[in-house]
């Protein structure tokens, strides 16, 4: 299939390509907004790559990403276009006829055009009136493809058959019922598209009292293309904005999506006839790409009991996201569409800007179930909130959340710390025991309470995440072990400073940083500091490998988080003649003799793992080219971590700034974000090229 379907032929159907020399073609990327072409196609290799957003692959990958298809669906689509006969080896699995999905999508596209045209008819006046009452004019209806299903009951079927579609195809697409009746009749219609603009199905709203179907909204039944657990309304319009802003806003209805987009919140999407689930979460993550951890997903809920229940359900699956989760609730109970209608576009943007962390919204509602005027009520509230505290992914923030919980329930911080720690360590019991929920339901049964077995990411070390390493909030980097609360016993890994009643009498030497004189030792379990450790080893043992300008392949003092590493690097820079014999010894001698010098010797003698073995048993060391490549890779990785820390700090500041009340600062911060993102992409590309040559 890859040989038959030429990638330049497939891509040119979507992207205008121009020759750029050396057998390559170039155009504007279809996966993100850009004004300068960065999307490159190499026909001889059958590959594409965007230097702007990092998307790349072969012709099948292109079709999959463009149309949001599975691998087999993409192959089937290409096979139908290029006349390739497919043979399915798994005969026990039911397979759709070749080309069936392509014909289904074609029928949906024709139906969407038919519905849109029908909205202009006289009988569609109630539908147009509904849109006007909701604040949408004709231009808005055209933008979102809103249409009308005629009351005739067979009009769509007749039209599609006249275009050559068979009744079996229309049944498979969910457009026709048995007997030749249209599936959608006398209803307002919204086409549901994927990220590649293909119409997967439809949503329809009741307009007339004599409608035989009582449901206010109905959707296309499950088909080859439409799976309600995997589609999001508005994705076709929001896809690029989500990728650019690293943000998605999840609303509840079609008109809410329309209102958000018209108000300038162009990252809004909605699930279709089902709750937001795992497949939806994975789809959002994919759209955010590699920077999803720094992104955010904002849910809009009503402030009533139903909204609180929905928030709890989302929170129970919060670990599905790498992005941070927030909730935006309108105090008066208005949904986004009603809010825009009543107070205007600015009010809707303000609602999203006032978002609050999902855990805080849920925690406030959980605490609200208890009588905080009573001591036992406050303690019970703290115990109930323990699961929310321990389920937060960024464990470096837990201590701050404990303080926040203490303020919410009106208790001392240390008292809350002890209560939360006890609740985490001890298995909860039901009402028949001495501890449990006031309703008699075991606390551990509640969503998000703290059951780690089904929450991926619960025990994930924050140092695993790119860019982590801000020493201001990381115990053990700028404090000795004895400085930390509860250091006389091992700290609970989930609750910073919480004493563990275990048998140990002292700190764990494997996790403690310790000190050498006035400089703290690096923590051996910190992976980001491992890159600093590796670069210093390479510098001391192979200074000749750093041949790229500026000196030391561009590594600077800013790249070192730990003071011990920074001190060694300063000593390296201060000894310029790195090609002279005994240079490493001179660097070590220049360090203060308060223990730092002795500790640094390991950097000069510790073996460097290499991907390639020495050329022969008698070789003095690894090949020169390989050690130079490894030095370049490690230096690039270190600089990338520094840049990611800067980006994380900037995005954190940006999220706290209200774009309405402080627009000038918001715009300035956003402008400074763009060059840093471009630099991050450049470093990532450099790292990929280096790794490809190793």
What's the SSE blueprint?
Layout: H1 7-12, E1 18-21, E2 24-27, E3 39-42, E4 47-50, E5 56-57, H2 59-67, H3 71-82, H4 100-118, H5 125-133, H6 138-144, E6 147-149, H7 155-162, H8 167-172, E7 187-193, E8 199-206, E9 217-219, E10 232-233, H9 235-245, E11 247-251, H10 254-262, E12 268-271, H11 278-288, E13 296-300, H12 305-316, E14 324-328, H13 336-343, H14 345-353, E15 356-357, H15 358-367, H16 375-384, H17 386-390, H18 398-409, H19 413-425, E16 515-516, E17 519-520, H20 527-541, H21 563-574, H22 583-589, H23 596-605, H24 624-656, H25 663-693
Parallel strand pairs: 11-12, 11-13, 13-14
Antiparallel strand pairs: 1-2, 2-3, 3-4, 4-5, 6-7, 7-8, 8-9, 10-12, 14-15, 16-17
